[in-house]
């Protein structure tokens, strides 16, 4: 098997992995919720309480749909030439949404005493644990997309390698 | 002037612009502070209260140092071949830090009633206004870096264009 074919297979496997991870992240975050009673007031923690978490779910859902469709795009078509740019756009989207969600999750965990924001994880520990899992998956998904972009750029910069395939 | 030279000049101008914008973002965020008295308790809002804002200042400061140095890297050297990857890394860094800082700024502006986090911008309006300016600069810096990466990829994918220079 030629070098380029091995690389293409490698990217395909990375894409499948990225699809699984981003889908899990979206589902895990979207399904996490916990009901608690605090001073007789019922309180439900769910992802839609925070715009950052909503953004995280939407970005990961979009990335998983993209990850499912992109292996079927023929690489010689006009769309195929745009795949590197699309990969880049989705890497940015995942980076951005994971960072925003992590920033909010940090306030949820530690609070911010200067701003008077109290941590909420002591009240809703189950919610926080599940959300952390989703964030970890989102982080891994971002890293995999970065690897895909770096691989694609490496292949694009070495046209001889591609032509040998 | 050839097409490739025009493009190189275009990227150089984008880099200078990105340097100015990221430097302004870092300085604007780092120097913003406001002292207020709330119920006789002195309270000072500054960027170092929030890890996300610290990350924003550090990322923009690093990006401006990088933006200042990179035009002096000879494009034929080993370092020159890494410039596209470095551009990508700094684009990610800026995307990530701007998103995290925006997520926290949103809570500062609107609060989050479900989590019981009150907005702070009514107490420290001057701080919020300056921080918004810094965030806008950070956002523009991120967009410029994306444009630089897209330009560089376009040039890398069209080696004939580069060889004609």
UniProtKB/TrEMBL annotation, chains A, B:
Signal peptide: 1-24
Record's GO cellular component terms: plasma membrane
Domain of life: Eukaryota
UniProt xrefs under Pfam families: CASP_dom
Residues of the Casparian strip membrane protein domain: 8-143
Keyword Membrane recorded: yes
UniProt-recorded name of the protein: CASP-like protein
Lineage of origin: Eukaryota, Viridiplantae, Streptophyta, Embryophyta, Tracheophyta
